[in-house]
Each structure stands twice: as C-alpha cells, then as structure tokens.
Target: MFS transporter
Amino acid sequence: MSARDAESGPLSPTGTINSATDRRRVAFATVVGTTVEWYDYFIYAAAAGLVFGQLFFAPAGEGMATILAFLTVGISFLFRPLGAFLAGHFGDKIGRRPVLVITLVLMGAATTLIGLLPTYSQIGVAAPIILLLLRVIQGISAGGEWGGAVLMAVEHAPKKRRGLFGAMPQIGVPIGLLLANGMLAIMTLIFPGDAFLEWGWRIPFLFSFVLILVGYYVRRRVEESPVFQEISVRKEAASAPIVQLFRRFFPLVMLAAFVFAGNNAIGYMTTGGFVQNYATDDSGLGMDPGPVLWAVTISSVTWLISTFVGGWLCDIIGRKTTYLIGWVLLGIAVFTLFPLVNTGDVVLLGVGIVLLTIGLGLTYGPQASWYSELFPASVRFSGVSIAYAIGSILGGAFAPTIGRAIVQETGSTDGVAYYLFGMVILSFVATLLLRDRRGLPLGPDHEPEQSRGIYAWEKK
Model:
C-alpha cells in the first residue's frame, strides 16, 4: 500500500501509520518555520516603504528614493526562481527537511545583518549595494522555503484533510506580516520621530536572530515527508527533476504561476509596503505611521482566519470552487480599497484592507493542497516551488513599484485599482483552465495517474 492510500493517515516506508501527534508536530513546525521566514521577508518590505528610501537612497531625491527602495523589494523576487530551482532539485533528491533548515538559516542571517548595516550617510554607496545583496539572499531563501513547507504539511496529511493541513504553512504568512508590522508599530511608540529613523527600525531585524533559533529547533524535530521516505526506500528519486519538470509539465508550471499571480499582486499592496507608504508619505496622505501599521497588523489577523477557512473549505467544496469564490470577492475588494484609504481615516483604511484579506485568504488557503495535487511525486518539490516563484514575479515582485509609479504619473489611485483587477482576471482564467484533483493519491506508485487529467479540457 502507498504512503498516500491510508485514509487514517500517511504510512511510513515500513508500513506503520504516522500518529496524530506526529502530524500535529509537523503542522506546528510548518507554521513556526514559515512565520519566521515571512516575518523576515515582510519586515524588509515594510521598512522599505517607511525608512529605507531616506536611509539608503536619499541622494536620488524623495520620490525616486522611494521607488528605488521598492525596487529592492521587487528585485529579490527575480532570485526566487534560483532558490526554487536549488531547493526543488535537492528537495526532490535528498529530502524536504534539510532544505527547509538551510532556507531558514539563510533568511535569518540576512535579516540580522540588515539590522546591523550602516546607512548611506555613514558608508556611502556601499550601503545600498550591501542592502541589495542581503535582499537577494532573502529572495533565494524565500524561493526555496515555500515548496518544502507545504509538502511537509500536505504529504503528512490524511487524504481528506489535505486542504486544512496545507493551510498551516499558509497561515505562517499572515502571522509573519502581523509580527513584522506589530514590531514596527511598537518601535514607533518606543522610538518616536527621529529615534525610529535612527535606531528603532533596526530592532525588529535584530530580533530575527532569536526567531532563527526557535525555528531551527522546531524544524530539526520533524520527521521527513513520508512520500519522500517512500521514494528514498525505492531509490526512485529523479536524477534531474527540473529537466523532467520543464520537459513534461512546462504549461502546468506556467498556469499554476498565473493562478498565484493575482493573489500575490494584491497581497503586496500591504505586505510590500505600498499602502503603508502611500498613507504615511507626505506626497500621499501624510498619516501617522503608528496607527497605519496597527491597521495592517489587525488585517493580518483577518487574513490568517480567512486563509485557515480557505484551507478547511476546500476540503469540503473543492480547491477550484474555493478559489473562484475568492477571485470574485477580490475583484470587488480592489475597487473598495482605495476609496476607503483615501478618506485619510485610519479606521476606514483598516476596513478597506480587511475586506481585501477575505478574498486573499480564500485564494491562498487552498494553494498548498492544490499545487501538491497538480504535480507528480518525482518532480513535486521542483514543480510547486518554481510555479510559486514565477507566480510571485508575475504578481507581487513589482506591484508596489508599479503602484507608486501609477500614482506619481496620474496623481490618482484609480489606475492601481484597474491594474489589480486585471491581475484578478488573469488568475481567474488560469484557475478555470486547471482541474480540481482533490483526493488524488500522492505516492510515487501513482505517477501515471498523477501525470494525466491535469487540465480542464482533458478527460480524466
């Protein structure tokens, strides 16, 4: 019997059923690990919108300095595919767990070093160059993180609860956003005004070192994925998984990437710091940063809840149906966001972001389980990682930069709303073109079944 055929839970290669305690430990470890990773990633994006323009790019002038700061956020996305290629290759060859430990340490080390980095006024042009290099390391780490985390969760899960288990690493993303913005908001209270610009912003970056230790300990205690254990025992690991992936499944990789692009573009309105910058910058609304950060922090809670609901719901009504509902809600929410933000009232700004998070959760919670069921076992790590990385480039990589450029060119946020709506339509169409494969066996002995019936126009 395959590791994925057991209704009560996955089997180890020796035939014993992994206990509920083991599965809970895996779920907890994936939440902790992704929280640490995305805390590090988002703390950078939030700081880019608030202080990096002034500290590292000031000679470029106020407007261009902000655009350059946002560009460093986006450029890191270009290196996500490299992280995904490396992690996918080694994750399909040596296992999911060691790759996850490496990505965690890489991300945390880069974040801690950013907290120690001198500014432009202290070391000149070397400051933005080093900042960019450290952000590139973050991008490589993020590209390798997601695929391993979701496969650890989904491949350990009972067949009928993959959506719920797959939502566990997903909720690490809003928790990371919550912690990142919460930490920055607290720092604005402890270090108001110039003190925040001088030193306060650094503390959340340095705090990453503590989080690395916690995440490392938790991840080292988790068992390897039972699907990979089975592949290892049978000595069936693909010799060149990425070559096989692109030779056999390139259209699938691109469609899966387009599915993610809309969610990522809209999500990076807050996770990429655009809304925070627009609301607080003197050329925007000029609001106080503290309350804006708290509003984003609160929206992280609703995003967490809706992501969890999305994972739970997709086990009941299907991955594809849950996604389509989410796209409709996002299509509405992108046109309510900026009218509420533009009131300059922090409560209404919070309402606008919260409305956005409902659709974001429904198009993010099911992603882990759906992606895992789309790709065959031998190339699954490579497939989910690379599709996710390409989707992030098409979606969120330059969304804050595009948003800022549109506002500077037109003096209005209307164009930003239409841009985001276009991304929703793109992802809606890509979703329609893929088949819901809920409950498909995930083990290596079901490769022929996993390799067909993927697209909506195909026969099962």
Q: What stands out?
A: Residues 20-450 form a domain with the Growth Hormone; Chain: A; fold (CATH 1.20.1250.20). Confidence is low (pLDDT under 50) at residues 1-17. The two ends are 23 Å apart (CA to CA). The chain has one domain: 20-450.
